[in-house]
Each structure stands twice: as C-alpha cells, then as structure tokens.
Design goal:
- The protein is an alpha/beta fold and about 250 residues long.
- The protein is about 40% helix and about 15% strand.
- The protein has a seven-stranded mixed sheet with strand order 3-2-1-4-5-7-6, sandwiched between helices.
- The longest helix has 18 residues.
- The protein is globular.
Length: about 250
C-alpha cells in the first residue's frame, strides 16, 4: 500500500473526550503502527459542568484531554471556541486550516455531518473545509509542509449509530478495537470531570459503560468483540480507497 501522504492522523472534534468516545480505539491502533497522532477539540468544554465557572472547567478539561492523549503518545490541541456556540465561519475555519497546515495530516477523523448536537455538525463542516483547503498556499500564513495533500477523511459514528431523525447510519468501514478497548476506556477515564458528573447523575459508571456498549454493538455487525464504525468521505479530490480497511483488515 502506498499512502502518498504523511503518516499523521488528526481527530478534529467538538469537545474534550469526543475523540476518545468516537475513534479512540482506532487512534490507539494507528499509534501502534507508528503513526503520529493528534487530537484536537474546537472548544475546551466550558459548559460541561453544573458547579464550576467556565474558566476553571476549561482549564480542568483541557488538562484531562492532554493526559488522555499522552496515554497513547498523542498531542492534544484546543482551538478555543465556545462550548455550544461552535459555528462554521471564517475565523473558525482559519483556526482549523492553520492547525492542518502545521501538522499536515494524511488521515482525519471528525463527527458525523448529521449528529445529535449542532456543535458536532459544525465541527464536521469545519473539518471538511479545512481538509480540502489547507493545501492551498494562500490559505494560511503557516508554510506548507512536505507531503501536504487532501487527506483521507472519515466521519465517526454518532451516538447509538443514529442520525438526528432516528435513522440508522450505514458505515462504510469498521475497525476491530477488541484488543484496544481497555486502553480506550483508560483514555476516557482521564476525563474525570465528565465521568464524575455522569456517575453522580446516573448512579453508575455510565460514562465508560455507554462507550463499551456501543463498541460491542458495532462489533456484532462484523463478528468481533468490539469495533468502531466510520463513513468515509469519497468526494472529488479525496482518496477513495479505504485506508482503514487496508491497515486493519477484519479477521473474523
């Protein structure tokens, strides 16, 4: 297999902990193959609390995200938009383009284009725009890195594998994360601020268990113990071969 792009993966998501939920197992597998991995959130999660002010919770959540990324040797970035107010506009696109320009990813993960909350949908649009635009020399003041190209782009599963209208998503790609499930749970557990709130609210460790249930649910689709599912973007100028399927062929 010839990639022709940098062996750099970027998960560009809305909030801290979204990447761990949506594609953490696949990021672990990429690191195991020697890929450089970056996790970025548009917002610092400043509305993810019932008790703290926005500055304290933002500081706490970005530290948690950094710790989770460091567990697998990845790098965390925050573009510092506001939680609940992420929009598809010029300044936000520019921040994303600049990030892409600095790391030149060959493989990108983001939210589903149709998801349960608008922060996710807007982030998916921003990621799609930046993935296409960042290689244009005039799009950013940051210099072009070697092998900059339109990357492979995958949309992650929305919660429960459903779109906002309750329709079932049909994935194009599955990645077996059976051996990575515990490490994925460990990454997610780094986000203690969210885990504690949900644990007190639900009376159980729902934060971790909901992730496990969905991984098992997707695993059943393809006859493995646990999996993550994606829809590949195959529009004009994007690669149409499925690099995830080539890197991680399913063995049932």
């Amino acid at each position: 297999m010839t990639l022709g792009r940098n062996r750099v993966a970027l998960a560009l998501m809305a909030h801290p902990d979204d990447a761990e939920f949506c594609c953490g197992g696949t990021l672990i597998r990429l690191r195991e193959l020697g890929w450089e991995v970056h996790i970025a959130s548009l917002a610092p999660g400043d509305c993810g609390t019932m008790t703290e002010n926005r500055w304290d919770i933002s500081s706490r959540r970005t530290r948690e995200a950094t710790a989770a990324a460091q567990l697998i040797g990845a790098t965390y970035h925050c573009l510092d938009e506001r939680d609940g107010f992420i929009v598809y506009d010029k300044p936000t696109i520019q921040k994303a383009v600049d990030l892409f320009r600095r790391i030149a990813p060959g493989l990108v993960f983001t939210h589903a284009l149709r998801d349960y909350m608008m922060d996710h949908e807007m982030t998916a649009l921003v990621a799609r725009a930046a993935s296409f635009l960042h290689g244009a020399p005039n799009a950013s003041a940051f210099p072009l890195k070697e092998n900059t190209a339109v990357p492979y782009l995958y949309y992650c599963d929305p919660p429960e594998g459903l779109d906002p209208y309750g329709q079932v998503i049909a994935p194009t790609t599955y990645v077996d994360i059976s051996a990575q499930l515990e490490k994925k749970a460990e990454m997610l557990a780094c986000h203690a601020s969210q885990r504690e709130w949900l644990r007190s609210y639900h009376g159980m460790d729902e934060y971790i268990e909901s992730m496990r249930r969905h991984a098992v649910f997707r695993g059943k689709d393809v006859g493995v113990a646990a999996a993550e599912a994606f829809v590949q973007h195959r529009g004009h100028a994007y690669p149409r071969d499925d690099i995830l399927a080539e890197l991680f062929p399913l063995r049932r």
